[in-house]
Amino acid sequence: MKLPEVSRRSFLKWSAVVGAGAAIGGASMAKGGLKVLEGTAEAAGTPVPDKVVWQQCTVNCGGYSCALKLHVKDDVIIRVDTDQEDRPGFPAMRACQRGRATRQFVYSPDRLKQPMKRVGKRGEGKFEPITWDEAYTLIAENLDRIIKTYGNHAVYNHYASGTDGTTRTSIPRLLNMLGGYLNYYGTYSSACYSWAAPYTYGGTPYNSSDDLVNSRLIVLFANNAGETQPGGGNEFYWQMQAKKAGAKIIVVDPRLSDTAKAIADEWIPIRPTTDNALMDALAYVMITENLHDQAFLDKYCIGFDDEHLPPSAPPKSSYKSYVLGEADGVPKTPEWAEAITGVPRETIVRLAREIALTKPCALIQNLGWQRHAYGEQPVRGLPVLAAMTGNIGVKGGGTGLRDGRKNAPSPSIPAGTNPVKASIPVFMWTEAIVRGTELTAKDGLRGVDRLESNIKFIWNYGGNTLINQHSDTRDTHRILQDESLCEFIVVHDVMMTPSARYADVLLPDATSYERLHLGRGSTNVMGDRYYLGVPAITPLFDVKTNYEVCAGVAEKLGIGDKFTEGKTWEDWCREAIAAVVAKNPGFPTWEQLLKDPIVRGTEVEPIIGLASFVADPEKNPLSTPSGKIEIYSEQLAELAAQRGNADELPPIPKYIPSWEGPQDPLREKYPIQLVGHHVKRRVHSTHDNNPWLEEVEPQMITLNELDAAERGIKDGDMVRVWNDRGEIHVRCRVSKAIMPGVADLPQGAWYTPNGSGVDVRGCINTVTKYHPTPGAKGNPQHTNLVQVAKL
Amino acid sequence: MQYGFFIDAKYCVGCKTCQIACKDRSDLAVGQLFRKVNNYEDGGWVKRGEAWISNVTSYWLSISCNHCANPACVKACPTGAMYKRTEDGLVLHNAADCVGCQSCVWACPYDAPQYNPEVGKVHKCDGCIDRVQAGLRPVCVDACPYQLIDFGDIAELRAKHEGTAHVKGLADPNRTTPSLLVNPPTGAISSPIGGNRK
Questions:
Q1: The 4Fe-4S Mo/W bis-MGD-type domain covers which part of the protein (chain A) (predicted)?
Q2: Looking at chain B, which residue has its C-alpha nearest residue A84?
Q3: Which of A87-91, A290-294, A352-356 is predicted least confidently?
Q4: B189 in contact with chain A, both atoms CB, cutoff 8 A
Q5: Residue B85 with chain A: CB contacts under 8 Å
Q6: Mean pLDDT throughout A570-595?
C-alpha cells in the first residue's frame, strides 16, 4: 500500500516525548530506554503534564466505560492513568491492560492519515490520496446514483463496534434523510442469545452481578469475564467478591480460562458444541434422583413434563420426556453425555447433585457457547436447570441467562426515523450482497416480504467485519472483490485494518481521545457511568470525525443545513446531555460534567430478575404467550414448521449434534475442534497491532500437550492449521490448560494472507464456515474442525 | 526500613495491567519488562474411553524487582552501579557506572534487571520512588483493577497480609531473601521451581 507522507505535524516531536510510542518505528525505542537510564533511579521523575484530561476507553469489550486519565504535555499524551475512587459497592473504573496501552494505539504507525481512493483492484490495498472535498463528492455521487438506480434497500450501514458512543448516530441521521437504509438485527457477539432467550422468558431477565455475593454456588458456562472485561467494576470483580464471601465457583469451559485460573474451585473441561448434552444429563440425574423442584416447575413453567404441555404440543414432547428418552428411546444418561462431551460420568452425577442441593445457586452463561452451529440451544437450556432447581427470582440465584448490570441513561443525537422497514440478520450481509432479493422470512428477513435490491452500497464506520470478523475470509474476499455485486464501499476508521483494504473511499477517523465523546449508558458499570470525554490532544494527521464526514456528504447532496441544523458537534452533545438531564432529575449538567465527567452510581441493591413474577405469577405474567417460563415454546414449533427445519429448531432445548462438532464424520480428516476465544490482549480486532499488547500475549494457537506430542510439536513451533476452507501459519503454545482434541486460536487477529493465500497472522475466520444458525441466523464461529501439523 | 511488594496471587486473573502500566510509566520498549506476569501450569490428563480426566492447575504470578535483603545483583555487579539504598532498602541502579556486563541479569533469580540492547546498559524497577516520595503508590499498585498488589514497609505488609515467598514457579527465597509476600493460589506453596513457567 502506498501511504502519503504526513505533513501536518511532526513525527519527531511525538517520538521525543512519547518515547516507546511506535510513531516512527524502532528508532523511538532507544529514546524510551534512554530516558529511564539518564534519570537513574534516584533522580527519576515522571514528566510533569501540562494538563490531565478525563477520557473513556471506547473499545467494545462489553464493559465499555473504563475511565482513562490522560496526561498531556505539549499536545502529546505522555501517560495513561485511571480512576482511583473506590466506594462501597462501586469500585473505581480502573482501566485494563488495553486502556493502559492507549498511547500505542493513538500513535500507531498504522493510523490512517488522509482521505484516499482506491486505484487497484478492490481488496488489493492500493490507494492514492485525495482531498476531503473529492471524498465527499465521490461518496455523494455514488450514494445518489445507487439510491436512484436500485432504491434505498441497496444502501447498508454496516455493523461495527470498533468505536461507540453518540458519534455512531451520524450515519443513520444522514441516510434517513435520503430515504433510509437496509437495517440489520442482532450482533456478531450475541445473535443467538438475544434471539433465543425471549422464547423462554419473553425477554432476557437477569440478576445483577453484585448479587453474586449472595450465592453459595456459582457455575459459569462459557463465561470468561476476567479475560473479556478485565477492567475494574465489571463482572469479574463481583465473581471475585463472591469467592471471597465463600461461594464455591465451578467453571465449565473447553479452556482453563484465566477466569477459571483465578477463581474456580473446579474446572470442568467440555468439548465445544456439546454443552446441551451435559445439561440434559444433569437434568437426567436430577429427575431420576428426584432432586428437582417440581412445585416451582408446576407453578411457573410450561413444558417441563407432559402434564404441562400446551394443547398444540404432541405427546411425549416435553423436556422430561426427551431427557428420559420416552420419545426417541435414548435416555440422556451421564454415560450418554460422557461419550459426547468428554466429561466423566461421575463428574456429571456429582455436579447435578451439587447444583440441585446447594441453595442459592447461580447458573450463569455468557456468549461463547451461543456462537456455534446450534447456538440457540444452550441459551434456552440453562434456564431449564435454573427452573428445575427453583433458583429463579431469588437472591443469589438467577435466571440461567447472563448476569447483568444496572441501567443508566444514554445520550444520543436525533437520528430521525428510517423509512426502510426491512432488516436482515446481522451475519447475512454477504448473502444480501449476492442474493438479497431472493431472501425471505425463512432466511430471517424482517419487515418486508422481499428486498427491492441486493446490497450495492456499504458504509463501514469503525469496523473490521468487512473481512476480518466475518466467516470464511476466502469467500468474503471473492464477494467483495466483485465490483458488479456491491458497487461502492466507504470505510471510515482509525487504522489501516484488513477491512479498510476493501474501501473504494478510505477516510481517516479521529480516535475518541481527539474528539468530544459522549459515553453510552446502556451497559453501565453497576450504576457508574462515564459520560463526557473532552479532546485530550489536537487530532493527528488530516482526520475528520464521523459527524464532519456526514455533514460534508450532506452538503454535496444539498441537504447540509438540514443535516447540521447549523449546529456544531459540541452543540449536539450539549443538547444530548440536556435531554438526559430533563428526563433524569439530578443528572449532572454539561457544566458539571466538564468538572467531573464520571457519573457515580447510587443504586446499591442488586436487581433480582423475575422477582415480581415469582412473587405473583398471575398479577405479573411474563410476556411469553403463556405468561409463564416456556421450556416448551409453541412459537418456536410454529416457526420451525414454517421454515421446515424442526430438527434444527426444536420447541424444547436439546442437544443437536453439530456439523463440524465432535460427532461429525469429518473429524476423521480434521480431528481438532478449533475455538476462538476473546483474548485479553485485544477487543475483537482492536489493538491487534498494539506492540505492548502483542508482548502481553502473542497471537498463537494453543494445543493440548498430548495433541502436540502426537504431532511432534514443541512449545513455540510454527504450525500449519487448515481445513477445506483455508490455511493459517501461526506459532503454537503447548499447554495443559485446554482439553485434548480442542485447539484455541483467539479471534480478532488481522487477516494477513501471503502470496499463496495462507493467513500468516492467525485470523480464525480463514477456516470458519459461513453457515448461519437455524433460528437467529447467527454466526457459528466456534464450530470448526481443522488439522494441525508442524510447519 | 525495607520496602517490598505484596501480591495477592490467589485471585490474579493474569490481565497484565500492572505490566502495561509499568511500561507506560517507564517508557519501556517491547522486550523490556520491569514487572512481568508469568503463568505456571501443573498436572496432566488421562483418557478413559471418551472421557477426559485431569488434575491441571494453573495460576499467574506478577513479579518485579523484589528489592531483596541480600540482592544477588548487587553482589554480582563489578562496578557498584547496582546498589541497595540503606534508608528504604530499594535496590537501585546507577546508569553512569553501568558497563553493561549483565552480571546482574544472570545473577538475579527473578529476571528483574533488564538489559537494554539499544544503549548497552541495564535498567530496572525502582519501586516508583518518584511517586512514592510524592506520596503516591507505585503505578502497578494503582493499576491493578482488583487491587491485588500492595507496596510498603515489608514488615508492615507481613503484619497486614497472609503470605509467603515459597511459591512454585519462583526461586527459592533463601537465595536472596526477597522483600516479597505472596498470597499463594491453592496448591502453589511448595518446593522451588517445578512445573512449567510460561
A1: 50-110
A2: B142
A3: A87-91
A4: no
A5: 42
A6: 93
What is the per-residue pLDDT for A45?
Answer: 56
Say whether both A360 and A264 belong to one domain: yes
Q: What is the pLDDT of residues B16-31, one digit of tens each?
A: 999 999 999 999 999 9
The pLDDT of residue A287 is 98
**Residues 6 or more apart in contact with residue A713 via CB below 8 angstroms:** A703, A719, A732, A734, A788, A789, A790
Q: Where are the beta strands (DSSP E) in B72-172?
A: 82-84, 91-93, 114-116, 121-123, 149-153
Peptide bond into A360 cis (omega under 30): yes
Tell me the backbone φ, ψ of residue A288, rounded to 5 degrees.
Answer: -70, -25
pTM of the full structure? 0.94
Q: Between chains, do A261 and B147 touch, taking CB under 8 Å as contact?
A: no
Cell of A549: 464526514
The nearest CA of chain B is from the CA of A512 a distance in Å of 19
Query: Is A50 a member of any domain?
Result: no
Predicted complex ipTM: 0.94
B42 close to B168: Cβ distance less than 8 angstroms: yes
- A628 and A745 part of one domain: no
Task: Name the CATH architecture for the domain at B3-43+55-182.
Answer: 2-Layer Sandwich (3.30)
On the CB side of A93, how many CA atoms lie within 13 Å of its CA? 25
Q: What is the mean pLDDT of chain A?
A: 92
Taking CB atoms and an 8 Å cutoff, what residues of chain B touch A345?
A: 51
CB within 8 A of A616, min separation 6: which ones? none
- Return the C-alpha cell found at B96: 553512569
Which residues of chain A does B16 touch, with a Cβ-Cβ cutoff of 8 Å? 97, 680, 696-697
In this structure, are A256 and A367 located in the same domain?
A: yes
Range of the domain at A35: 1-41
Question: Residue B94 is placed in which grid cell?
Answer: 546507577
Q: Are residues A121 and A211 in the same domain?
A: no
Instruction: Count CA atoms within 13 Å of residue A583 on its CB side.
Output: 10
Looking only at the bridges linking them, the beta strands covering A785-790 and A718-723 are antiparallel
| B146 three-class SS | coil
